Each structure stands twice: as C-alpha cells, then as structure tokens.
Amino acid sequence: MVDPRVQIEMYAWMKLARTFDEQMVAMWKQGRGLGGTFSGRGHEAIGVGAGMALGPDDIVAPMHRDLGTYLVRGMSPERIFGNMLGRATGASRGRDANLHGVGDLGLGIIGFISHLPQSLPTTLGVAMSFRYRGEPRAAMTFVGDGGTTSGAFHETLNMAGLWQAPFVLVIENNQYAYSTPLDQQMHSPNFSERAGVYGITTATVDGNSVVDVHAACTEALERARAGGGPTVIEATTMRMLGHAIHDGAEYVPAGLLEEWERRDPVAGHRRHLTEAGIASEATLDRLDVAARERIATAVAEAERAPLPDPDTLTDGVYA
Ligand SMILES: Cc1ncc(C[n+]2csc(CCOP(=O)(O)OP(=O)(O)O)c2C)c(N)n1
Ligand SMILES: [Mg+2]
Q1: 118 C-alpha to center of ligand 1: Å?
Q2: Is there a smaller number of Cβ atoms within 10 Å at the N or the C end of the chain?
Q3: If you measure from the C-alpha of residue 105 to the centroid of ligand 1, how many angstroms do you get, rounded to a whole number?
Q4: What span, in angstroms and rounded, lies between the C-alpha atoms of 233 and 142?
Q5: How confident is the model over 200-232, as pLDDT tens digits?
Q6: Domain ranges for the chain
Q7: Average pLDDT over residues 301-317
Q8: Buried b / exposed e across 100-131, counting CB within 10 Å, b at 16+?
Q9: What is the CATH number of domain 4-297?
Q10: Is 239 in the pocket of ligand 1 (CB under 6 A)?
Q11: pLDDT for the residue 241
C-alpha cells in the first residue's frame, strides 16, 4: 500500500489543482484578463500522480491539462496565474498568456510546446542526453489521444523503442480531441497495442485513480533510470469541460459526462481516504480550506504584478 502520508499529499495536490482550475474558469467568465484557458478538470489524478512519481533529477514536459504536474514540480500558483495574466512575473515573463510556455529548467520542467505533439521528440532528445552522459535519469512527457494520430508520435516511439531510451510517455485518453470523439480519430483506439509494436513496455491505467497513475509512473521511471527502456502508459479519463473555455462542448452526450462525474478523481480519492481510515473528513476539510487560501493569495499577487516592460521585448530572442 502507498504510504498513507503520500496518499494524503496526493489529495492536497489534486485539490490545489482543482481549486486553481475552478478559479481560472471563474476569472475567465468574469473577464479578468486571462489568455488561453484550458481546463484540466478531470485530469488531476494524471497530472498529480505522474508529477509525484518523478525523481528530483528527472525532466518532464507537461501538456496543457497537466496543471497538477507543474504544481507538484514546484511551479508556484503565482507564477502560473502571472503567466495566464500576461504579467512580467509569469513563467514566460509576459510572453504568452497561457499554460503554454510555463517552463523552468531549474525545476526540471520543459514548457508545453504548443505544436502537437512536439513535446515528444524534444523529450526523447532529453532522454538520450541522459543516456549519452551515463546519468541515471528519466524524461517524461504527455500526449492526448488526438496527438497520437500525428506523425511525430510514431516517429518518436519508433526511435525510443530502437534506442531503448529512458523515456516515459503518458497518453491522456480523454475521449475527445477538440470536438472529435475517439471513433472518428482512429480505427481501433488500443493505445497499448499501437505503442507495443515499437518494442516499448506498455500499461493501461485508470486515469482517474491517482494511486494507480502514480504506481504505473513510478515503475516506468524506475525502469527507465535503471536502463530498462521506455514505457508508454495509457491513462483513461474524460475531458469534463470544453476543449478551451470558449467551447461549450455541446457535442458531448450529457450521459457520458454524468457517468464520468461519478468517477471524479478528486472526490473519488477523498472517498477512498475516508473509507480506508487514512484521513478524517476534518483533516481533508482543512486541506480544502488551505487550497482555497493558497489560490486566493496567488491570484491577488498575480493581479498586482506589473505587465512586462516594453524595453525587454527582445529579451530571450536569440536570432
Ligand atoms: C499541430 C497542431 N495542430 C492543431 C493544434 C490545435 N489543437 C490544440 S489542442 C488540440 C486537440 C488535442 O486533442 P488531444 O491530443 O486529444 O488533447 P486534449 O486537448 O484532448 O487533452 C488541437 C487540435 C495544435 N496545437 N497543434
Ligand atoms: Mg483528447
């Protein structure tokens, strides 16, 4: 069994990610200046479970719904809200008002690369740099179901399998790529089968169980660091809101959302903790309050922060 303290920590991170997400959606509706707003509601167990499995020397390239990974890895809510509000204090120093570009190599995070799925070849390159230097480190990244239909997914897995790279890929199968459901994207959505042909270890997990995601990622990262080659993990979940906030997702059958709502990852883990006697309702309530306070402080700080100085416009432009 996973250490009870770690399981409580999982709840705290998921609650922080969920509270951030709800605040972000509310602020967008209030017209409070957010840029691209992609909700990761429903993806908390994946982002947190994977993030908590990473070792201090591993590198991760999260995707647009992996807020939990950024938070667990040490990217502060102030810097992420600052980024979304285009502030000088944001992770991209006001260059990109989005979850895109929220990278910090000091924290072992490569910012999300907007062109899908270019985080894959980039992360494979990082993984191979560990191999060439003989370092026991792993590189992990994510891709959506939609991203698996592109050439770069197959090219990356081909080379990762050939080279047996210390590379871990989490496929976030959330049933839709924008408005396109799985059955209109590919002939047979068996992701393990698709990755397995490249000589890669595969696993399929309940993407709404933080404990399961964490276990699969921990095993895969340990294998990668020990020279045992790459892993592809399919985590099944559901995108609970539209692609981005402007998308009402009317094309998603209501029954499907209701079915997945009953499997909500945050509420589900809370239920597990209380039923297993790992944490009391009062303890978890306190974590809920702490998450709300943490996010309120972060928003206030980000809103007070300055916009970038126009004189810094060309900073970070290399050619
Ligand atoms: C090359 C490229 N084409 C189109 C887009 C626009 N786009 C961003 S996310 C997205 C859908 C991705 O679906 P999926 O991979 O399933 O991830 P999800 O958003 O469902 O998490 C699209 C079409 C893009 N970013 N890059
Ligand atoms: Mg998808």
Answers
A1: 11
A2: C
A3: 24
A4: 9
A5: 999 999 999 999 999 999 999 999 999 999 999
A6: 4-297
A7: 94
A8: bbbbbeeebbbbbbeebbbbbbbbbebbbebb
A9: 3.40.50.970
A10: yes
A11: 97
